[in-house]
């Protein structure tokens, strides 16, 4: 069985949106999170969807799931203080729904520009390599600094990649890592960061182009432009 764990528990303070969280901002009348969920809803290999949502917006999400026919969503749980906490909550909620060797794809609710092929590649990579971290080559030089003032390293750009999502695992293994981190009082940026801390080998899957996370206002407008361009290509056969 394969489950998509979609975390959308953040308030999105960087969006400067007073009316609603970023995952509920609408494009053409549809919330961003629904665009994301549809990729998993319509994928033949995805059996279930578990969603982590801001507590005060769970009722709104339930209505949207019904309105847009998202039938694979089996559980909605409240988010935590951080993204790490939200993923923990989602994995805890999967107990009883997933077995040790079931596959879980962990994905941002505000990362809607993925496709069927990327989901399939993540699933295949878990089966063949044990996990899958979606990544793309760094487009510019990466510099390293400890204090934000002095650059101490400029790694070879050819060796640098940006971690994206989905990040996919066998359920039992990723759940154990988050439980260990909880006992060690460690919180991480994402699941790839967690694997790095505990020296877990990771397999990389090439990201789709423009797999952006909608975090700031500019991201929303870039997403809208990219989505409309892709829709135009389908309509006009470009």
Word description of this protein:
This protein is 36% helix and 23% strand. The protein is of the alpha/beta class. The model has no long low-confidence stretch (mean pLDDT 92). β2 and β3 form a beta hairpin. It has helices spanning 32-41, 58-67, 83-93, 116-129, 171-183, 191-197, 217-236; strands at 2-8, 26-27, 30-31, 48-53, 73-78, 103-108, 131-137, 144-145, 151-153, 161-170, 204-206.
Q: How many H/I helical runs? A: 7
Give the assembly state of these chains.
single chain
Structural class: alpha/beta
**Strand order, largest beta sheet:** 5-4-1-6-10-7-11
Termini Cα gap: 37 Å
Biggest beta sheet attributes:
7 strands, mixed
Number of separate strands? 11
- Helix and strand run: EEEHEHEHEHEEEEHHEH
Average pLDDT, to the nearest integer? 92
CA-based gyration radius: 18 Å
Low-confidence stretches: none
Percent range for β-strand residues: 15-25%
Morphology call: globular
Search tags:
238 residues; globular; 7 helices; 11 strands; 36% helix
Give a quick rundown of the structure:
The chain is of the alpha/beta class and 238 residues long.
How would the blueprint of this fold be written?
Blueprint: E1 2-8, E2 26-27, E3 30-31, H1 32-41, E4 48-53, H2 58-67, E5 73-78, H3 83-93, E6 103-108, H4 116-129, E7 131-137, E8 144-145, E9 151-153, E10 161-170, H5 171-183, H6 191-197, E11 204-206, H7 217-236
Parallel strand pairs: 1-4, 1-6, 4-5, 7-11
Antiparallel strand pairs: 2-3, 6-10, 7-10, 8-9
């Amino acid at each position: 069985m394969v489950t998509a764990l979609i975390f959308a528990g953040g308030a999105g303070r960087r969006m400067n949106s007073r009316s609603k969280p970023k995952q509920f901002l609408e494009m053409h009348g549809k919330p961003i999170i629904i665009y994301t969920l549809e990729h998993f809803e319509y994928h033949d290999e995805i059996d279930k969807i578990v969603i982590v949502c801001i507590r005060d917006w769970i009722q709104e999400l339930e209505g949207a799931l019904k309105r847009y026919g998202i039938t694979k969503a089996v559980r909605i749980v409240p988010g935590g203080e951080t993204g790490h906490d939200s993923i923990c909550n989602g994995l805890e909620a999967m107990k009883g729904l997933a077995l040790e060797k079931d596959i879980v794809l962990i994905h941002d609710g505000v990362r809607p520009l993925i496709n069927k092929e990327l989901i399939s590649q993540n699933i295949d990579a878990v089966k063949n390599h044990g996990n899958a971290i979606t990544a793309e080559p760094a487009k510019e030089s990466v510099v390293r600094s400890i204090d934000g003032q002095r650059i101490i390293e400029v790694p070879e750009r050819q060796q640098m990649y940006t971690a994206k999502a989905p990040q996919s695992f066998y359920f039992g293994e990723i759940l154990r890592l988050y439980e260990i981190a909880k006992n060690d009082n460690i919180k991480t940026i994402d699941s790839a960061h967690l694997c790095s801390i505990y020296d877990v080998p990771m397999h990389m899957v090439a990201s789709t182009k423009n797999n952006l996370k909608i975090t700031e206002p500019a991201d929303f407008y870039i997403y809208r432009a990219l989505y409309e361009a892709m829709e135009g290509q389908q309509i006009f056969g470009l």
